[in-house]
Amino acid sequence: DLGKEMDIMKDSLSTVKKTRDAGELRQALTAMRQAAQDAKDQAPERLDGKAKDSAQIKDYRAHLDKLISQIDVSLKKVNAGDVAGAKAESENFEQTRNESHKKFR
Ligand code: HEM
Fold first, then answer.
1. Which residue's CA is the closest to the ligand 1 atom numbered 6?
2. For this protein, what does the record note about how its cofactor is bound (predicted)?
3. What's the CATH fold of domain 2-104?
């Protein structure tokens, strides 16, 4: 269920913020990305009964896509050896999380 993907995102976000190890950082970002991708195949309880092609479900998925592109920016940075820059992207993840939770949680 969606709660499971959210728990994975929460744990990975916490690792992203804590670690200074590039390998661990990459692993956490990859887990967060997969969870966000899996969350796209589900729908929040608040949108129960909405059609898959409704504006609300599309908006929900667009917020997850935004998070995924932010994760990709962070992955590029860690792959380029910029651990600090990659970690700094977590501020954008939190902004998207907060925006999304206001709308869909
Ligand atoms: C790094 C980003 C995010 C983190 C760390 C995060 C974390 C969490 C956590 C810890 C919960 C509570 C889970 C539970 O009840 O067990 C939750 C719930 C929820 N989150 Fe997120 N979240 C993130 C991004 C998002 C995004 C981008 C969306 C939507 C586009 C979203 C939508 C929701 C919804 C709808 C719920 C309530 C669960 C439900 O309706 O079934 N979250 N999130």
1. 6
2. Binds 1 heme b (iron(II)-protoporphyrin IX) group per molecule.
3. Four Helix Bundle (Hemerythrin (Met), subunit A) (1.20.120)
